[in-house]
Design brief:
This protein is mainly beta. It has one domain. Helices cover about 15% and strands about 35% of the residues. It contains three helices and 38 strands. The protein has a ten-stranded parallel sheet. Strands 2-7-12-16-20-23-26-30-34 form a nine-stranded parallel sheet. Strands 4-9-14-18-22-25-28-32-36 form a nine-stranded parallel sheet. The longest helix is centred in the first third of the chain and has 20 residues. The radius of gyration is 22 Å and the shape is globular. The relative contact order is 0.08.
């Protein structure tokens, strides 16, 4: 009888211990980075703000008058698989009083596959020198990727953006994938660069989708994509291969001054209807 009671108690306690072991303090992760150790976590809960601009490896990148920009170097690989971030993820920070901007530079591969950002995720002006993965990732608040620079492969396939998604002025040097992603609020891709192509196939846009002034020199796919909010393709330049098969526009779609291979996009749409 005593053995049975002990066994039951152990069975109840073990899951609690296991859960406790998955909780990681954000400051401890920064300490790993400062020591040059690879950061690898799976099914973990990250407690506190994970601030990559607080690393010790910092240098002055440029000075413009009284404004200074600092690069915060993260030289080890970063991998979080199916993790939950309870605080903000900060890879960009601007101090108005000091007139200082701090941007993280990730020198190795970065993987946030299957993660959930419960709060903000600031990657503005950040540089990814290795591969970057955000597949199946949930962004509960604003996903800030404005002016972000990627050097190689990056994927946002099946990502969920519950807050605003800001990719304005971002450059994707390799083909980028947003296939199967869901944008619950506005998605801003204005002036974004896609020099090697992109795929938004099977993607859902529930807020305003802004692709104004975007160029797709190597083509793009919007196959089976659903635009439930207003859509702006004004001044967009498309090039073949272009795939609009099965696309749905529930509200106004602005194609004013839009071109495909230098020709009228309106004529392209008319030919598709025949």
């Amino acid at each position: 009888m005593k053995k049975t009671i002990v066994l039951i108690i152990m069975m109840l306690v073990i899951p609690i211990i296991s859960f406790a072991q998955t909780r990681v303090k954000a400051d401890d992760i920064i300490e790993q980075v400062n020591k040059g150790k690879a950061v690898r976590y799976k099914n973990a809960e990250i407690i506190g703000d994970l601030n990559f601009t607080s690393v010790k490896d910092i240098e002055l990148y440029k000075k413009n008058g009284s404004t200074k920009t600092y690069s915060c170097h993260v030289r080890c690989p970063i991998s979080f698989i199916n993790c939950i971030f309870r605080g903000d993820l900060i890879a960009y920070f601007h101090d108005d009083k000091k007139k200082e901007t701090h941007n993280a530079v990730f020198h190795d591969d970065v993987d946030f596959g299957g993660c959930e950002f419960s709060k903000g995720s600031a990657f503005k002006y950040v540089k990814f020198l290795g591969d970057a993965n955000f597949e199946n990732t949930k962004f509960q608040e604003e996903a800030l990727f404005k002016y972000t620079k990627f050097s190689t492969k990056v994927s946002y396939s099946k990502a969920n953006f519950y807050g605003e998604a800001n990719f304005k002025y971002t450059k994707f040097p390799e083909p980028v994938y947003f296939e199967g992603s869901v944008f619950r609020r506005s998605a801003d891709f204005k002036y974004t660069k896609f020099p090697r192509g992109a795929s938004f196939a099977n993607t859902e846009f529930h807020g305003v989708a802004n692709f104004k002034y975007v160029k797709f020199p190597k083509g793009v796919s919007f196959a089976n994509t659903e635009f439930h909010g207003a859509t702006n393709f004004k001044y967009t330049k498309f090039y073949e291969p272009l795939n609009f098969d099965g696309v749905v526009f529930d509200k106004d779609a602005d194609f004013k001054y839009t071109k495909i291979d230098g020709k009228s996009f309106t004529m392209y749409l008319l030919k598709r209807k025949k």
